[in-house]
Design brief:
Blueprint: H1 2-11, E1 17-19, H2 21-28, E2 47-53, E3 59-64, H3 67-76, H4 81-84, E4 90-97, H5 100-111, H6 115-123, H7 126-134
Antiparallel strand pairs: 1-4, 2-3, 2-4
Helix pairs in contact: 6-7
């Protein structure tokens, strides 16, 4: 199972670019329209997987074709049901992909990760990410319950 998951992770396209936590610390305090490191979506490049930090300390992982607009939506309360009541939210991580399908696949992958693994990704700690991938244990599945037969 672990090998299958690792193969799936390795087979996903690598992001065209990403912004590690160290760079995002400064960006988080700026208005959503002040992201010089991020490509302008009008240039045809703008397929993002992103992670937000919510006011309760939880993470929200999403994907979009227009990161600036999506952040404004989250900050205004119209971005998602989850983040609506957990404002303010802050962008803490993003990855840029060539196609939205790749960003969406990465979103779904990261959504399945533990909090520790997401923190390692956000911090850019590749060693910790590899360690957490190796120590992952899928939940044990018990024997199937068989319904009683007859009256």
């Amino acid at each position: 199972m672990l090998c299958l998951m690792l193969v799936r992770w390795l087979s996903l396209p690598k992001p065209e670019s990403y912004m590690p936590f160290e760079k995002l610390r400064d960006v988080m305090m700026t208005a959503p329209t002040e992201f010089p490191e991020m490509p302008d979506p009008s240039e045809g490049v703008g397929n993002y997987m992103y992670i937000l930090s919510c006011s309760d300390g939880s993470f929200y992982t999403g994907s979009t074709i227009n990161l600036r607009l999506r952040l404004e939506q989250h900050k205004s309360g119209s971005g998602s049901e989850y983040t609506k009541d957990l404002r303010p939210v802050k962008l803490i991580y993003c990855e840029l992909y060539d196609r939205i399908e790749e960003a969406f696949a990465r979103e779904k992958q990261v959504q399945g990760w533990s909090r520790k693994k997401k923190i390692a990704l956000i911090k850019g700690n590749v060693i910790e990410l590899k360690h957490l991938a190796q120590t992952f244990k899928p939940p044990e599945i018990g024997p199937r319950a068989v319904p009683p037969s007859g009256p």
